[in-house]
Write a structure and sequence with these properties.
The chain is mainly alpha-helical. The chain has six helices and no strands. It has one domain. It is found in: Secreted.
Length: 143
């Protein structure tokens, strides 16, 4: 996986120990790391004549959802900063330069099944980290 070099906590217990700011940054970095590979994946599957139209549509939908999620996390981050929940040290960190990853051809050369496996793995991480962040910010949700 092209994101294997990113340091991410193994397990929920370790993720819960990460400060809110770092966890937010990690979520943004993971989402940003998938922008280009998803775009290449969409281009790749467009050339598969044998794929049904709904497969292509779903792939584009996933890319759009990742983009919308990243935009939403950025908005939540801005709100958290304005409320003083986290510092402003995350400004500009969601850009590709801020991810600390150079997207190599590795992500573009993966087989479709490897690509989907890696995407699912990182999606599960983002989902878990968002749940932890939500529980920290809104403890009344009885997490």
């Amino acid at each position: 996986c092209h994101t294997s070099g990113m340091l991410t906590p193994n397990g929920k217990e370790y993720a819960q120990k990460i400060p809110r700011e770092e966890l937010t940054h990690l979520i943004l970095r993971l989402l940003q790391a998938w922008k280009e590979p998803l775009s290449h994946f969409n281009q790749h599957i467009e050339h598969h004549q044998e794929l049904p139209d709904d497969s292509l549509s779903k792939a584009k939908q996933i890319s759009n959802m990742v983009h919308e999620l990243k935009t939403g996390v950025e908005k939540v981050t801005e709100k958290m900063q304005s409320m003083g929940i986290i510092s402003n040290s995350l400004n500009g960190m969601a850009s590709s330069e801020g991810t600390g990853l150079s997207i190599s051809n590795e992500a573009n050369m993966m087989s479709d099944s490897d690509f989907i496996h890696c995407f699912r793995r990182d999606s599960n991480k983002v989902q878990s980290y968002l749940k932890i962040l939500k529980c920290r910010i809104l403890p009344e949700n009885s997490c």
